[in-house]
Automatic annotation (TrEMBL):
CDD domains linked to this entry: AdoMet_MTases (cd02440)
Species in which this protein is naturally found: Kineosporia succinea
Domain Methyltransferase type span(s) in chain numbering: 311-411
Cofactor: Mg(2+)
PANTHER family given in the database record: HEN1 (PTHR21404), SMALL RNA 2'-O-METHYLTRANSFERASE (PTHR21404:SF3)
Keyword Transferase: yes
Record-listed E.C. numbers: 2.1.1.386
Alphabetized Gene3D superfamilies for the sequence: Hen1, N-terminal domain, Vaccinia Virus protein VP39
Keyword S-adenosyl-L-methionine assigned: yes
Family classification: Belongs to the methyltransferase superfamily. HEN1 family.
UniProt KW keywords: Magnesium, Metal-binding, Methyltransferase, RNA-binding, RNA-mediated gene silencing, S-adenosyl-L-methionine, Transferase
Protein name (Swiss-Prot/TrEMBL): Small RNA 2'-O-methyltransferase
Length: 488
């Protein structure tokens, strides 16, 4: 398997050989790296001020690869695992080599020249033999939206006999790109074009895809195709990745941010010298709904006597800020599927400006609630505020099992919109409050779901309204307070 990465430059102050710094591989040396599938070699066919080409050659050991598969039967015929062209065409094996050999370059780090990772280079990437299910059109659909100029040529089965095209293409990409972006995109696209992987795909692959696709995959028009193929069409993993990317898509409008910044200091309460919470300046019907929701959650947590709280789906940290201001909460955890939301939470909480004692009380972590996570256990209370409506209904039982069954806190608070109140926000019938909401329940539906969860996992549940209540439509937000029954 073979890949070349070429940088060109006409500027003497930025020679093409800067590519060597970014790849962390010296142009004057040939290096090799042992991998589970064989040996990777890195060398530079050309390295001067105007043109620098780095080559990655993966020498696959087909015998070792087959032996590593255990008792899996051969496909096609008795020697199919040993006699085939797969070790010579770029695939997930080359992607693994790319990720291992150029790991630091993909992360965008260069300690020797910290200015280089943020500077785009004139790059050309060449993969001479690449499996491409769907032909040249698929390759263009995947790379052109990323700003690459794409040259893709089918590889004939035999140029002399005219037997037609093979399943492989010769791929050339050119463009002015960051090296980290170029390598990340190729790392993802190699197995996507092949539509196969040489290893078993697990939940870890979702994390790899989200990390490698940060900054470019969320907005890609073929994101669904990329996700399906990268995760080998495993529906559970594809659904999880879709939810993760949906979280990354969420944007906070500038007007709302401005409004919240004006109100947040006065709206979420403060702490008096004796440690008690001072009532918020803005409370009641004149406060924005999100403020009333935070106040209702804080009130319920105080009534429950909670001292450790896991905010599951913490978003930008509105509730966490209110809790962090009160020293009674000695252990706080914020979990969200969106990396962008967690970055906003760090700024909102001003963690860099806080004392070590305050920072020790809180942990922020990216995770998905549709997978069991033992680290969510051991908290007095958990909060799911405006979270469940972002989850596909078919996956709610899994979320409930993870929160109420595995984490099993003493108190669980769940808020969700009341669809009956939507007309009073000027919404048409069937229109949801957020484009990512998979559903919105009326009071009867929410209470039926909550009652079923309570019985199933040994909790009692009671309901409250948040916001100004309409005589017929009820409150804009519904709140369920689950309390673990001691006998269970």
């Amino acid at each position: 398997m073979f890949l070349t990465i070429t940088s060109t430059s006409e500027r003497t102050e930025a020679p093409a050989t800067d590519l060597g710094y970014l790849l962390h591989k010296h142009p004057d040396r040939a290096q090799k790296f042992g991998l589970p599938v064989g040996t990777a070699h890195v060398f530079y066919p050309r390295a001067d001020a105007t043109t620098c080409t780095a080559a990655l050659l993966l020498e696959v050991d087909p015998i070792a690869l087959v032996r590593g598969r255990g008792s899996r039967p051969a496909e096609g015929f008795s020697l199919a695992q040993y006699v085939n062209d797969r070790p010579y065409a770029a695939s997930s094996m080359l992607a693994v080599a790319l990720g291992k050999v150029f790991k630091t370059a993909i992360s965008g780090r260069c300690d020797v020249r910290p200015d280089l990772p943020g500077a785009p280079l004139d790059l050309s990437l060449h993969v001479p033999a690449l499996p491409c299910r769907g032909g040249t059109d698929v390759a263009r659909r995947l790379f052109e939206p990323l700003g690459w100029s794409v040259s893709v040529t089918p590889v004939p089965l035999d140029p002399e006999f005219g037997w037609g095209d093979s399943p492989y293409v010769d791929l050339r990409l050119s463009g002015r790109k960051l090296v980290s972006d170029a390598l990340s995109q190729l790392y993802v696209m190699l197995p996507v074009l092949d539509d196969a992987k040489h290893y078993w795909v697990t939940a870890d692959e979702v994390d790899k895809l989200v990390r490698a696709g940060e900054g470019w995959l969320t907005e890609h028009p073929e994101r669904a195709l990329i996700t399906e193929r990268y995760l080998r069409h495993q529906r559970r993993l594809v659904d999880d990745a879709s939810e993760r990317f949906a979280g990354l898509e969420d944007e906070v409008s500038p007007d709302l941010v401005a409004e919240e910044n004006e109100l947040e200091d006065a709206s979420v309460g403060s702490v008096s010298p004796d440690g008690s919470v001072v009532a918020p300046v803005l409370a009641g019907p004149e406060a924005p709904l999100w403020v009333q929701r935070v106040n209702a959650l804080v009130e319920s947590l105080e009534a429950a006597g909670a001292q450790s709280v896991a905010d599951l789906g913490c978003g930008e940290g509105k509730l966490l800020r209110a809790l962090l201001e009160n020293p009674r909460y000695q252990r706080l955890l914020g979990v969200d599927v969106s990396h962008r939301a967690l970055q906003t939470a760090v700024r909102r909480l001003r963690l860099e400006q806080q004392s070590d004692r305050v920072r020790e009380r809180i942990t922020l972590r990216q995770s998905s609630l549709v997978y069991a996570d033992a680290s969510l256990s051991g908290y007095d209370a958990a909060v799911l505020s405006e979270v469940i409506e972002h989850v596909d209904p078919s996956r709610l039982p899994v979320l409930a099992a993870n929160v109420f069954g595995t984490a099993r806190p003493g108190v669980v608070l769940v808020t969700t919109p009341n669809v009956e109140h939507n007309a009073h926000f000027g919404l048409e019938h069937g229109e949801t409050r957020h484009t990512d909401h998979r559903f919105e329940w009326d009071r009867e539906q929410f209470q039926a779901w909550a009652a079923d969860v309570a019985v199933r996992y040994g909790y009692s549940v009671r309901f409250k309204g948040v916001g100004t209540e309409h005589p017929e439509a009820g409150p804009p937000t519904q709140l369920a307070v689950f309390t673990l029954e001691v006998s269970r």
